[in-house]
Design brief:
With about 475 residues, the chain is α/β, with parallel strands linked by helices. It folds into 2 domains: about 200 residues, P-loop containing nucleotide triphosphate hydrolases (Rossmann fold), CATH 3.40.50; about 240 residues, 3-Layer(aba) Sandwich (Rossmann fold). Helices cover about 35% and strands about 20% of the residues. It contains 17 helices and 21 strands. A 6-stranded mixed β-sheet has the order 15-18-19-12-20-21, with helices on both faces. Strands 11-10-13-14 form a 4-stranded antiparallel β-sheet, covered by helices on one side. The radius of gyration is 23 Å and the shape is globular. It starts with 7 loop residues before the first helix and ends in a 7-residue tail after the last helix.
Length: about 475
């Protein structure tokens, strides 16, 4: 455990051989492992499901799983039939649903994570590292994932589990290690620790584990209707569709939309952000039909967007922190068509200080932790002072301190009159922030209520498609 930027992922990448340590060594039960060598780490039985798993988009799921370790027949031909049979048996044994013939480019983040797990199971790795594995999972998905981890543990696998979520760690872990600023401050048996002690070590002071109280009063009268979906529909496949979605949001209001992501949250995010256009129905912003408007046009109208897929949609990976932060306002820092470095550095440092973003302005953003990358995107969008913010899974990868700061900032932003369309599979986040809550199930809105009219149990039942009281 540790705050964003504490060094957790870097340490795990050292174990996997993808990062060379400056000094020191490590070993497994079978002996010392040569550092800086992915092959040697793999030979020692070490495998990792990364926080932001990636794949070869042009290959199928099957080919990604066996890539580099293809079973052979007649010395040089790939025995795909044998590979398919064995992987299918792993899918049945561990209850992992994936179409092995699907192109990787069509998978969502949860499916890619499952594909990486299948890859490790296919290779029979003994030491399994999971970096923030539950960040993109709903509560139901998290429970299922934990049951899978318990099964792996019973089979003798060693599991290293990186998480910011104290409840999950104390539920699953036998031992807990805490990192801060690149050092391990504590390593003890879980039964000899308590959450408050771990939180204090993580942030260097007493930590607040609760969600912050909202600053806006309940039942506040909001402004005029700003954004509306009218009978919106879209069908991508038999299992991925939206049907007859009607929602609206007013100035200064936070509308929380929740559900299991595969039940329509991802498609809804794509439609309202302009990434795809609805096949049925209309979208309106400020009374204007925006059903066919793309992301750039929506941004010019005053709509900001914080995507769930932060690496592919939210940042330029090969650019610096400063370059990513000024993407939307670089023209203000021009003189005679040339960027003024001192202005860029001063503004970047100010934003980094305000939002607690680690790193030097010229550091490549890809070297930041997932939580710090999220803070870069959030700060850039919030600083634009938009009329409407579309924000999807804002707390993914954030430690509890950063999460609380984010929630307070969103609450204040809504208090200033900005409408916030919040998409989240985290029920606690939805209940903390939202004025009204809508739940998607099987591509449809099955519940719409004011926050004060609902609770965690009612939302959970709606997410599962169970009957909810009107």
């Amino acid at each position: 455990m540790g705050e964003n930027g504490a060094g957790k992922s870097t340490l795990m990448n050292i174990l996997c051989g993808t990062v060379m340590p400056d000094r020191g060594s490590f070993s497994t039960a079978s002996g010392p492992v040569e550092p800086g060598s992915p092959g040697k780490s793999a030979g020692a039985g070490i495998g990792m499901v990364h926080q932001h798993p990636m794949c070869s988009s042009s290959l199928s799921v099957l080919d990604n799983i066996i890539l580099g370790f293809e079973p052979r027949k007649h010395y040089f031909l790939t025995n795909r039939k044998e590979a398919r049979k064995y992987i299918a048996s792993l899918q049945e044994e561990y209850r992992i649903e994936l179409d092995l013939d699907s192109p990787c480019s069509e998978l969502n983040s949860v499916q890619i994570q499952n594909m990486e797990l299948l890859h490790l199971l296919y290779l029979d790795r003994d030491i399994l590292i999971f970096d923030e594995p539950t960040a993109s999972l709903s509560e139901i998905g998290t429970e299922f994932f934990f049951s899978r981890l318990k099964r792996l543990k019973e089979e003798g696998k060693t599991i290293i589990f990186i998480s910011h979520k104290l409840k999950e760690v104390f539920l699953m872990a036998d031992e807990i290690a805490v990192m801060r600023k690149g050092k391990i401050l504590l390593h003890k048996r879980a039964e000899n620790l308590n959450p408050e002690e771990v939180a204090s070590l993580m942030i260097g002071r007493k930590g607040d584990l609760s969600f912050p109280e909202r600053e806006r009063p309940e039942g506040e009268n909001h402004g005029r209707r700003l954004y509306e979906l009218k009978k919106t529909g879209y069908r991508k496949s038999e299992s991925r569709f939206l049907e007859n979605i009607s929602l609206n949001i007013k100035e200064g209001e936070i509308l929380g939309i929740t559900g299991i992501r595969e039940n329509g949250l991802e498609l809804l995010e794509d439609i309202i952000s302009g990434m795809i256009h609805p096949q049925e129905g209309k979208l309106y912003f400020n009374g204007r039909d925006v059903s066919r408007s793309g992301p750039a046009e929506l941004r010019k109208m005053g709509i900001s967007y914080v995507p769930a897929d932060r690496l592919n949609r939210g940042i330029s990976r090969d650019s610096s922190i400063a370059e990513n932060l000024i993407l939307l306002n670089y023209k203000r820092m021009h003189k005679m068509g040339v960027l003024i470095p001192s202005s860029v550095k001063r503004w970047t440092k100010e934003i980094q200080s305000t939002y607690s973003i680690e790193g030097e302005p010229q550091q490549p953003i890809r070297h930041l932790s997932g939580g710090n990358i999220q803070k870069v995107i959030l700060s850039r969008e919030l600083e634009e002072k938009p009329d409407l913010i579309i924000i999807s899974e804002p707390s993914w990868g954030l430690d509890f301190n950063s999460r609380n700061r984010l929630h307070r900032e969103l609450d204040r932003t809504a208090g200033r009159g900005t409408a916030i369309l919040l998409i989240s599979s985290d029920i606690d986040e939805i209940l903390t922030l939202s004025d009204r809550i809508a739940v998607l199930y099987n591509g449809k809105v099955v519940m719409q209520k004011k926050r004060v009219e609902t609770d965690r149990s009612m939302i959970g039942n709606a997410m599962l498609g169970l009957e909810v009281e009107p």
